[in-house]
Design goal:
Helix content: over 70%
Number of helices: 15
Strand content: 5-15%
Structural class: mainly alpha
CATH architecture of the largest domain: Up-down Bundle
């Protein structure tokens, strides 16, 4: 079955330009549809897909599982969700699903027609469960998988959020001191004949802010905008990331994060009945681009008849502990369970590493920011101390 796309068509109706949305395999097919209906088509452009929020997919899966476990078939369950929903995006998504289901498609085929909403991992999990008749269990496994992956993302984001907040607050305090307090303080030294070096520095900065404050503010804004745009460039991001990964401890934790996502994905697919070679192809999506070539070689080794444990070890996509557990899973037929156990093991190890890093890094960061602020305050009062010492 050919894949359809959404198109926004502009056409003339009694001399007036109107727009409508249609589903077709290509722009030519969409134009042909409206021309057959008697419309004069002006242009056909792809419709920009509106993203449904990540949490909405999780909620949809939870509700669908509840209805399926209550005894409803897939079509009835989705019809029930459509009747209960008031969100336009969700209603549109459910209508498309029902349209495919009414046409005789499986749920996985209906989901695959909306790749902007349903990821390939979910589609393949559903497709494998349709052959075994355990759709509700497959959806629950995928929902649990997404929850665990999201927890890992939140943990990493939370670790990075604190330094950003501290640095931002520290930067604002320093800007306030240099922009308002230091210029006001410099007025104390105006008119004095004998000034110390620190007093001259404060007086110079105060006069600079007083006479060129707007220029300094514009220069600061320009610098911030420049660095903001610079750090958004993929090449710069990759370069900085590579420099950070030169630290052995951080490189090891990044590798653990990759292992957690990879083995959790692999376990989900194998447990759902997806063959190992196909599961490896799908798991490629959760690996960074730097590891894609390794996984391709793993797939080649597996297709050549080697075991999964040997193939992963040859490309350094495992650890001694993970390799032993995979070997146990291969012998016992519990490969999916062992992949999940590996993911859980390294998930805990990564959490401990993040906690240890946070306990060390946060106080050090506070000391650095506090030291810079304290240095500015010290420079403010140092001329007074120097003059008091000379008077005594």
């Amino acid at each position: 079955m050919s894949k359809t796309h959404s198109w926004e068509v502009t056409y003339l109706d009694n001399g007036k330009r109107k727009k409508m949305r249609t589903q077709a395999e290509s722009a030519i097919a969409a134009r042909h549809q409206l021309q057959q209906a008697g419309h004069a088509v002006v242009r056909v452009i792809p419709q920009k897909q509106r993203q449904i929020k990540r949490f909405a997919l999780g909620l949809f899966l939870q509700e669908l599982v509840a209805l399926l476990e209550a005894g409803l078939v897939v079509t009835e369950a989705i019809e029930t969700l459509r009747a209960c929903s008031t969100d336009e995006q969700v209603l549109e998504m459910l209508e498309r699903l029902l349209e495919k289901l009414y046409a005789g498609c499986q749920l996985s085929q209906a989901m695959s027609a909306q790749p902007e909403i349903f990821p390939p991992l979910l589609v393949n999990t559903v497709a494998s469960s349709e052959q075994t008749g355990h759709l509700a269990n497959a959806l629950k496994r995928y929902h649990y998988y997404e929850q665990r992956i999201e927890q890992l993302r939140k943990r990493i984001r939370g670790t990075l959020t604190y330094p950003v907040i501290v640095l931002s607050v520290g930067g604002l305090i320093i800007c306030f001191l240099l922009g308002f307090i230091v210029p006001s303080f410099s007025q104390v030294f105006e008119g004095m004949n004998t000034l110390t070096d620190s007093a001259r520095l404060i007086l110079w900065w105060g006069n600079l802010v007083k006479h060129s404050g707007q220029e300094l503010l514009l220069a600061l804004a320009a610098c911030l905008a420049f660095f903001f745009l610079l750090f958004r460039q993929p090449v710069v991001k990759q370069t900085l990331f590579s420099l950070v990964l030169k630290i052995p401890q951080l490189r090891q934790q990044q590798f653990l994060g990759i292992l957690v996502r990879f083995y959790r994905t692999l376990g989900l697919l194998i447990e759902g009945g997806v063959p190992v070679p196909h599961a490896l192809r799908l798991a490629k999506a959760v690996l960074p681009a730097s590891h894609h070539q390794r996984l391709n070689r793993v797939l080649e080794h597996v297709l050549a008849g080697n075991t999964l444990s040997e193939s992963l070890e040859s490309q350094q996509l495992t650890t001694p502990v993970a390799m032993r557990l995979i070997q146990v899973g291969e012998r016992s037929g519990e490969l999916a369970g062992m992949c999940e156990r590996i993911a859980a093991f390294y998930d805990e190890a990564l959490e401990r590493a993040i906690d240890s890093f946070t306990r060390i890094f946060e106080p050090v960061l506070m000391m650095i920011v506090g030291g810079i602020v304290g240095l500015v305050v010290f420079l403010l009062y140092m001329p007074i101390f120097e003059m008091a010492g000379s008077m005594s």
